[in-house]
Amino acid sequence: MDVFDIIGRLIAFPSVAGKPNGDIASWIESYLSEQGATVTLLLGPEGDRSNLFATIGPADVPGYILSGHMDVVPAGEPQWSSSPFALRRDGERLYGRGTSDMKGFLAATLAAVPALSRLRLARPIHFAFSYDEEIGCRGVPHLIARLPEFCAKPLGVIVGEPSGMRAVRGHKGKAAARITIKGRSGHSSRPDLGLNAIHAMSEALNAAVSEAERLTHGPFDPTFEPAYSSLQAGVIAGGHQVNIIPDSSTLDLEARAIPGVDPASLLAPVKARAEALAAKGYLVEWTPMSAYPALSLPQDAALAALLGELTGEAPLAAVSYGTEAGLYQAAGLDAIICGPGDIGRAHKPDEYILAGELTACQRMIEALAARCAG
User: Fold this and answer.
1) Rounded to whole angstroms, how far apart are CA atoms 139 and 132?
2) φ, ψ dihedrals at 33, nearest 5°
3) Cα–Cα distance measured from residue 336 to residue 121, given in angstroms and rounded to the nearest whole number
4) Are 273 and 251 contacting, i.e. CB atoms less than 8 angstroms apart?
5) Which single residue of 28, 69, 145, 292 has CA 20 to 30 Å from 329?
6) Residue 84 to residues 100, 131, 181, 254, 339, Cα–Cα distance (Å)
7) Are 294 and 170 in contact (CB under 8 A)?
8) Are strands 230-238 and 156-159 parallel, antiparallel or unpaired?
9) Taking the model in full, what pTM does it have?
10) CB atoms within 10 A of CB 141
11) Domains within the chain, CATH numbers bracketed
């Protein structure tokens, strides 16, 4: 199978985040096993989805991890020109949900496996494919925790998020949470007898707006656009009808933090303001939704130099989107982003990847393996 056959097979699996992923994980497991890799499916605590870890070469020697996620965002938009889960090729463009983010990278790595299997690798190439990245990097922490069981400490991790095959050394960290406020319902003509949850939520919302403004004043990191950490209220809901006192309201928040700043700490003032509402009789719940740390690989890191040589271009300092790379770095492993596709094409109708991007990624992986050969 070539890279185009493989991406067609992968796109056909509707592996939407938050859903069981047994079909795609089992297919990849079978493919890698047939090529001589040592493969393990790692069932997550949800019980219906798994990470996958595989190795070609000697597992007890430091090597490199190729990291990607098997899940995709939903594809319910009516603007799709064809089925999002059936690969459609039009010249250089290959359309389908996940082509850029990030089944294109998975396809390129799998297409390179036969070449890797023919080499006598002195250093191993590992494959770390996760679940539920798109809803907060929920699967990969379980995989990272078990890495010492399966391999010597790797020399580096290449996370294949879409970067146009330009390596990237950094991204911001992120934390997201939901505030739920429960009050007391009643007729709107007697507000004195109820507890208006939307009115109460305005205090938390005002705190979020104030914090967002404060962050624009620094600290700064000119590597990023914008150069400061940020906070926003993304979703707010509540109420039933205009003449009913709303008894519940929810607010979803996210913070994105420059390296050196804990993203969860940016949400703390909002959390404190919300929880203070309990003194007024409201029930307040704070539910963390997702979190991952920033990535900041030094410019002079050996992994950055290696990717510069493999791609022929100096790595970029940073991108605006987040990845699992920060979690690998937090676990003590050097990590870098480099993959086919473009983040600007992801998460929208008619997502696509270019054929040349797939083949370029496959060549990069094969070149990496050649350096690991004995």
Assistant:
1) 5
2) -60, -40
3) 22
4) no
5) 28
6) 12, 19, 38, 29, 21
7) yes
8) unpaired
9) 0.92
10) 18
11) 3-170+294-372 (3.40.630.10), 173-292 (3.30.70.360)
Token output for 102: 């990030």
CA dist 255 and 203 (Å) reads 18
Place of tokens 């109820």: 194
Match 């510069």 to its residue by tokens. Answer: 308
Residues 6 or more apart whose CB falls under 8 angstroms from that of 363 comprise none
Amino acid at the residue 239: G
pLDDT in tens, the chain (374 residues): 999 999 999 999 999 999 999 999 999 999 999 999 999 999 999 999 999 999 999 999 999 999 999 999 999 999 999 999 999 999 999 999 999 999 999 999 999 999 999 998 999 999 999 999 999 999 999 999 999 999 999 999 999 999 999 999 999 999 999 999 999 999 999 999 999 999 999 999 999 999 999 999 999 999 999 999 999 999 999 999 999 999 999 999 999 999 999 999 999 999 999 999 999 999 999 999 999 999 999 999 999 999 999 999 999 999 989 999 999 999 999 999 999 999 999 999 999 999 999 999 999 999 999 999 96
State how beta strands 125-130 and 64-69 pair: parallel
Omega cis (within 30) before 124? no
Task: Please tell me the distance from the alpha carbon of residue 157 to that of residue 109, in angstroms, as a whole number.
Answer: 13
What is each CA distance from 158 to 70, 77, 180, 266, 309, in whole angstroms? 15, 31, 38, 29, 14
Rounded distance, CA 7 to CA 88, Å?
A: 11
